[in-house]
Amino acid sequence: MEDTLNALDTGTLRVAEKQTDGSWHVNQWAKKAVLLGFRIKDMEPMEGGAQGAGWWDKVDSKFKGWGPNEWAAAGFRAVPGAIARKSAFIAPGVVLMPSFVNLGAYVDEGTMVDTWASVGSCAQIGKNVHLSGGVGIGGVLEPMQAGPTIIEDNCFIGARSEVVEGVIIREGAVLGMGVYIGQSTKIVDRETGEFTYGEVPPYSVVVSGTMPSKNGVNLYCAVIVKRVDERTRSKTAINELLRD
Q1: CB-based contact 160:150 (threshold 8 Å)
Q2: pTM of the prediction?
Q3: Which residues are catalytic?
């Protein structure tokens, strides 16, 4: 179990891996190792938090025992208030603002986890993703999920949005501010009227909306309003200066 958690921590193993056909394969045994850690380990004082903070838990800080050499080798930036737990992988070029990355998560190169954003247990975040302020990416531990929530490469997730329950946001998609998507959320294409669940298509621009239901009541949905164009790209482009 410890070997598995260490492999997750260094990025040599991940809970889910993208296949050549675009599907995602979940390594259920790796996810189970994360869960088993809670059953086997005892509560104890933890060190390695921001500004020397400690807490009472079963999971170490990812940064426990780190000095200048470890930080330099890791190659990412973590500002005061950034928290990551042991077994989360943070790739080089990532920027962690005051945020939380839970155990088993994978955050790939060039991504920014902005202020008060949280990346849930075993979530998979791709390259050059921007998770805006207050974004929540759901985990797998509670309630228990079969697969992790996945944000693919080059996505932009707007402020205070929530993506949970193993939903997949495909490459290049843009979610506007305050979009909430779980497995039961209708995702409606404005052009065609078709709706799906659990997955946002590549390069879609999505905002929050409503659909009529019984007795004149409108229910929440997510609306694909268009495909990403140059105007959208200019508004959501990442700033390379922040990642050097």
Answers
A1: no
A2: 0.94
A3: 114, 139, 162
